């Protein structure tokens, strides 16, 4: 890697990911932008249930809502059966009592109240009133959770599968591509890149991670409707100068990327994290162009081809 003092201008302080470890760490950020960190002693799910439900994926969240509704009505149906279904006026004698109590519970819980079945007596009426109250609270909470999930600003910025080192303007350069997968246009998009490399200290048996700021040819654009190829020129001042692919992987090099942009749909600033490490480094290739103009002068962008590579001739 040459003289380390040479790269002091690019060295960065610990960005909050740690510098010293007793064992090597494969990567700091996973490909999806989540941290490769197992946290012990955090707030348990039940103590932070709102965040857990807001962060839950759509399929599990839907299952939770439906399951909660079914379980709540099973509980109240059981209470009505315990009190006695003779206290529910209008039950069809040919219908299973528990099923009838369940349907009455569902109508009460949702405050629909068709009127076919009605409670008789103080105890049954009290339970029905409590169930209606619980139903109102439950639907208010569910509405808040659904709003919280849908109103959260999020990004759909896709990254190329690989970060490549390829010839560029008579030099070598590091490149990766990004594209906005939504139809909305991101404005004032800013990209910040850090390079992490390990440095083993044989005397202390410690593995130290060093961080380097990676300057880009262009790190800010006003408009971001197409793909954007981010380029870092590897000159003699770059931390990647005179390093081959094998050395990059031996040093467990990881490219840490943060993107900030203003999303016109949400009218808010959105942030996206990503990293490249291990097998994602590549050389001897270049990116294929994935947009062109048709006969009418319209630009055609193929988002699915963002990661397409071709071998250098």
TrEMBL record:
GO biological process: potassium ion import across plasma membrane; regulation of monoatomic ion transmembrane transport
GO molecular function, a single term: inward rectifier potassium channel activity
One term under GO cellular component: plasma membrane
Residue ranges of every copy of the Inward rectifier potassium channel C-terminal domain listed in the record: 157-305
Source domain of life: Bacteria
Gene3D superfamilies per the UniProt record, alphabetical: 1.10.287.70, G protein-activated inward rectifier potassium channel 1
Alphabetical keyword list: Ion channel, Ion transport, Membrane, Potassium, Potassium transport, Transmembrane, Transmembrane helix, Transport, Voltage-gated channel
Keyword Secreted annotated: no
Start and end residues of each Potassium channel domain: 74-146
SUPFAM superfamilies linked to this entry: E set domains (SSF81296), Voltage-gated potassium channels (SSF81324)
The protein's name in its UniProt record: Ion transport 2 domain protein
Organism from which the protein derives: Fluviicola taffensis (strain DSM 16823 / NCIMB 13979 / RW262)
Pfam families referenced in this protein's UniProt entry, alphabetically: Ion_trans_2, IRK_C
Membrane topology, record value: Multi-pass membrane protein
Location (main, coarse): membrane
Annotated localization: Membrane
TM region(s), chain numbering: 61-85, 97-117, 123-147
């Amino acid at each position: 890697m040459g003289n380390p003092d040479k790269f002091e201008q690019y060295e960065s302080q610990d960005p909050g990911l740690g510098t010293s470890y007793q064992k090597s760490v494969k990567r700091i950020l996973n490909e999806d932008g989540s941290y490769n960190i197992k946290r012990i002693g955090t707030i348990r799910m039940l103590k932070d249930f709102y965040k857990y439900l807001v962060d839950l994926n759509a399929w599990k969240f839907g299952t939770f809502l439906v399951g909660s509704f079914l379980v709540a009505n099973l509980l109240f149906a059981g209470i009505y059966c315990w009190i006695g279904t003779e206290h529910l006026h209008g039950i069809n004698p040919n219908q299973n009592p528990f099923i009838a109590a369940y349907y009455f519970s569902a109508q009460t819980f949702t405050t629909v109240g068709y009127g076919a079945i009605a409670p008789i007596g103080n105890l049954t009426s009290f339970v029905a009133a409590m169930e209606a109250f619980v139903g109102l609270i439950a639907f208010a909470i569910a509405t808040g959770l659904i709003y919280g999930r849908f109103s959260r600003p999020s990004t759909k910025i896709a990254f190329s599968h690989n970060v490549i080192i390829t010839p560029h303007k008579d030099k070598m350069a590091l490149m990766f591509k990004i594209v906005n997968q939504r139809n909305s246009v991101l404005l004032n998009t800013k990209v910040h890149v850090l390079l992490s490399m390990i440095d083993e200290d044989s005397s202390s048996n410690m593995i130290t991670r060093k961080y380097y700021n990676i300057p880009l040819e262009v790190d800010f654009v006003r408009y971001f409707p197409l793909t954007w190829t981010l380029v870092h020129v590897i000159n003699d001042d770059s931390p990647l100068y005179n390093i081959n692919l094998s050395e990059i992987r031996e040093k467990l090099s990881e490219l840490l990327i943060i993107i900030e942009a203003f999303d016109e749909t949400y009218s808010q600033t959105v942030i996206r994290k990503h990293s490249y490490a291990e097998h994602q480094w590549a050389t001897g290739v270049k990116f294929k162009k994935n947009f062109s103009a048709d006969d009418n002068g319209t630009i055609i962008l193929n988002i699915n081809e963002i990661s397409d590579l071709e071998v250098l001739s």
